Amino acid sequence: MTMLLLNHHIFLLLNASASPSPLLVDLADFVAQQLIYAIPVLLLALWIWGRPERRAGLISTTVAAGCALGANQMVGLLWYEPRPFMIGLGHTLVAHVPENSFPSDHTTFFLTVGFALIATRGAPGFGKLVSLIGVLVAWARIYLGLHYPVDMITSALIACLFGTGSILLNAPVCRWIAPTINRIYEATLDVLRLPIRIFPRTARSP
């Protein structure tokens, strides 16, 4: 069996049936398309209420995620794969623009953030949770007929590269970027006169 046929075969095993459970479809749709908006909210919440010394890890995680998405675009320029519904394969349960399927931006984003939060120690516990959700996102996007398994494997490799590589950013971020962003954050809190108990400040050196 060739790689293409194997990819299609596994896709059909994971893709929804002709009469899927409405509850499962709703769950997959939520995971595949809505949960991504929770990631920026999570990073913002970790910045405000997390440990100040871990903010450099949050910055490195954000940079790594952006770089991973950029790498996705480069990979997509090198290899074009029509989405399953563009070739009449399987069942497609949500509308999507007919564009390149390879690789998956959603999966890359989730897994990169998850891996980076673990690697940088920005929030290891949440990193594990986000990584697990990233696996569910990969399943959901195949189940709904938007991606192939190979798309997800490639996304996982890209995420692993940039997510674990984010640790290399921590030292320069700690030295040059985090202090500046912390000062901007402090100044913003002062200008807006936000209560310190709700929006804690960075601990200042004596």
Keywords:
mainly alpha; single chain; 206 residues
SSE pattern: HHHHHHHH
Structural class: mainly alpha
Unreliable parts: none
Q: Report the β-strand fraction as a percent range.
A: under 5%
Shape: elongated
The average pLDDT score comes to 95
Radius of gyration, whole Å: 20 Å
The level of helicity is 55-70%
How many helical elements?
A: 8
Count of all domains: 1
Main pleated-sheet profile: none
By DSSP, the count of extended strands is 0
How far is it from the N-terminal to the C-terminal residue, by CA? 68 Å
Account of the 3D structure:
The protein has 206 residues and is an all-alpha fold. It has one domain (20-192). It has helices at residues 3-14, 22-34, 38-49, 55-78, 105-119, 124-143, 149-165, 170-192. The longest helix has 24 residues, at 55-78. It is elongated.
List the topology elements.
Elements: H1 3-14, H2 22-34, H3 38-49, H4 55-78, H5 105-119, H6 124-143, H7 149-165, H8 170-192
Helix pairs in contact: 2-6, 4-5, 4-7, 4-8, 5-6, 5-7
Describe the structure concisely.
The chain has helices spanning 3-14, 22-34, 38-49, 55-78, 105-119, 124-143, 149-165, 170-192. The protein is an all-alpha fold and 206 residues long.
